[in-house]
Amino acid sequence: MEISFKLEKFEGPLDLLLHLIDKNKVNIYDIPIAEITVQYMEYVNELEGQDLDTLSEFLVMAATLLAIKSKMLLPKEVNEEGEEEDPRAELVERLLEYKMYKLMSHELKDRELDAVKALYKPATLPKEVSQYEEPIDLDKLLDGITLARLQSVFNTIMKRQRDKIDPVRSKFGKIEREPVSIEDKMKEILEYAVEIKTFLFEEFLEAQLSKTEIIVTFLAVLELMKIGKLNLIQENTFAPIKLSYLS
């Protein structure tokens, strides 16, 4: 909704008071109530043809000014701290608050006018530029995690895998599983990472069923890190290594 600014008429009694203060070039903190009240009543007397709602607002303020004027003639009251109370203090506070909001409305109006002058065009970047992805910095990605630490995790998992071998049953014949490709394992890891978001690297390796699958999983994780799909996290030197999905 457009904000209207009236020059001849005033938006309310506070607007009229601010006008009178500016017109008389007086300090808002030291308003000459007697003089301002006289000028204010002159304007109110000209509002006879206005609607009752508008007139009532100005009449309420007129009563307030007359009450303040009366208090100014009496001995000043003292508060609990022993300081003299100014009967104009509440009115001054209301005027300052109104003035602040009025200035803000002018600022918003100016911004609205400036916005009309601003023109925008849709992005017309070439497809090659818009699809550009910043190269992955492997040093930053593996910050704090050394290859020796990754090797240690891999060796631990392989040892546990060997410990699971039953010395008797290992001599029996076994049905070999179909070989797992790195591409298939990468797809499997990504699907898992998208769902879980963050998981322990060591536990994920342990869940693999064979030595070959552990090796393929290890290589697939390194490849996903290289292309920026997975991130390795280690909170401190001896903390477990976690894998985190990078969307």
Please provide a brief summary of the model.
It is built from ten helices and three strands, in the order ααααααααβααββ.
Give the N-to-C terminal Cα separation.
42 Å
* Spans where pLDDT lies below 50 across 5 or more residues: 1-8
Neighbour order of strands in the largest sheet: 1-3-2
Q: Oligomeric form of this entry? A: single chain
SSE sequence, one letter per element: HHHHHHHHEHHEE
Structural overview:
With 247 residues, this protein is mainly alpha-helical. The chain folds into two domains: 13-117, no CATH class; 138-169 and 177-245, Arc Repressor Mutant, subunit A, CATH 1.10.10. Helices cover 55% and strands 4% of the residues. The model is unreliable at 1-8 (pLDDT under 50).
What descriptors fit this protein?
single chain, 247 residues, mainly alpha, Arc Repressor Mutant, subunit A, 2 domains, three-stranded antiparallel β-sheet, 10 helices, 3 strands, 55% helix, elongated, disordered N terminus
